[in-house]
From TrEMBL:
UniProt entry keywords in alphabetical sequence: NADP, Oxidoreductase
Pfam family, one: adh_short_C2
Domain of life per record: Eukaryota
Transmembrane segments: none
Record InterPro entries: NAD(P)-bd_dom_sf, Sc_DH/Rdtase_CS, SDR_fam, Sec_Metab_Biosynth_SDR
SUPFAM superfamilies given in the database record: NAD(P)-binding Rossmann-fold domains
Residues spanning the signal sequence: none
Recorded family membership: Belongs to the short-chain dehydrogenases/reductases (SDR) family.
Phylogenetic placement of the source organism: Eukaryota, Fungi, Dikarya, Ascomycota, Pezizomycotina
Alphabetized PROSITE patterns for the sequence: ADH_SHORT
Molecular function GO labels: oxidoreductase activity
Protein name from the UniProt record: Uncharacterized protein
Length: 283
């Protein structure tokens, strides 16, 4: 049997000329992912979140990166991804600048921490709306742009930001994140369904499952759980996540290297999910 030949390895992780949309891209993991996309060669990366000022500031930071391709730029497109109207508004803003999208990062998310007995219905609904319903609406509305240049050899990519909390028990007690954990489990299964639905259309759908990464969303829980240093020492890798850990997985899934990965859920938590057979890192 003839050996398979690996063709053009230098371009395997290149995103040269790709167009990407990142929701929740103005800070935290979304901003790290957007930075990775641009530095891997993407020509346009649309940054979306609810606050226009935050999107503008993120784009200024990204556009000042020293190693971008000529003409590459981040573009501010503020919108509320929690509502169908907001998703349609985002689509309209993006469609003014491009007739296709190669990469869609469904990263916008929310959480709420409160005890079980007083956990508000409105808070649970808000988290589920953005983290699950909003993701479904986003992918459905952007599907025509994602299909525009998709092919068997070069599929378009959707990456959903889920969480290890969707794979095991999340945070319980006084700051229980019941809606968050349930939403991340739901969106993981949604991703698997959409991977099968959209694969024949030339679109892969994969999910990432971060553990604790210091960020505005997680800092409160980090402090309650003992702080960055203590949690880092308890992790099998003896540290918490950092930007490069997200960047590497995002580039892998969205480049030619990941073109046959579909329906996957990749844990990025240093192995804490499997430590002593339980979910020790709770986000």
């Amino acid at each position: 049997m003839a050996e398979a030949q690996l063709q053009d390895f230098p371009s395997l992780f290149s995103l040269e000329g790709k167009v990407a949309v990142v929701t929740g891209g103005s800070r935290g993991l979304g901003l790290s992912a957007a930075s990775a996309l641009l530095q891997a060669g993407a020509s346009k990366v649309f940054i979306s979140s609810r606050k226009a000022a935050a999107c503008d500031a993120a784009c200024a930071t990204l556009n000042a990166l020293p190693n971008l391709r000529p003409g590459a730029r981040a573009i501010s497109v503020p919108a509320d991804s929690a509502t169908l109207e907001g998703v349609k508004h985002l689509l309209a803003l993006v469609a003014r600048e491009t007739d296709h999208v190669d990469i869609l990062l469904a990263n916008a998310g929310a959480t709420w921490g409160e005890a079980f007995d007083t956990h508000p219905d409105g808070a649970f609904a808000k988290v589920m709306d953005l983290n699950v319903r909003g993701v479904f609406n986003l992918i459905r509305e952007f599907a025509p742009l994602l299909q525009k240049r998709a092919s068997v050899d070069d599929p378009s990519r959707v990456v959903i930001t889920a969480s290890v909390a969707g794979l095991g028990v999340g945070t319980l007690g006084k700051q229980g994140t019941y809606g968050y954990s349930a939403s991340k489990a739901a969106v993981l299964h949604l991703g698997r369904n959409l991977a099968v639905e959209l694969g024949p259309r030339g679109i892969t759908v994969n999910s990432i499952c971060p553990g604790f990464f210091p960020s505005k969303m997680s800092n409160g829980l980090l402090e309650m759980a003992g702080g960055v240093a203590e949690l880092g020492r308890a992790n099998p890798m003896r540290r918490l996540g950092k930007s490069e850990d997200i960047a590497g997985v995002i580039v892998y899934l969205t480049s030619r290297a990941g073109s046959h990965v579909n329906g996957a859920a990749i844990e990025i938590d240093g192995g804490a999910l499997w430590q002593r057979g339980q979910l020790d890192v709770k986000l």
